[in-house]
Design brief:
about 100 residues; alpha+beta; 4 helices; about 40% helix; elongated
Amino acid sequence: MTADAQQISDDEIRALVARLSRPDGSGGRVIERAAIMAEGSRSGAILDWLEDASWVPEQLPEPTANRGGSGLHGMRREAERGQARAQPPRRYVSPRSENG
């Protein structure tokens, strides 16, 4: 556990993750980083718990010259994908057999 993570029990974190996460299309669960950060001082403990429970940061598609469509909006989406590499992940995804 990181030094700045508030000490909370495993059961409390499990309940928080169950409340904050939602089902994803692949049979697992997904939790938004914004929801985790909204928990304030408990967010560090939640992130540590997710890592220990084998949740993984969501992988965005690699930017390519052909992806994103044409026009101004397609170019903007490509620029956002490139910027996302330097930012923390937007979501964390559970293993498919994990239910939070």
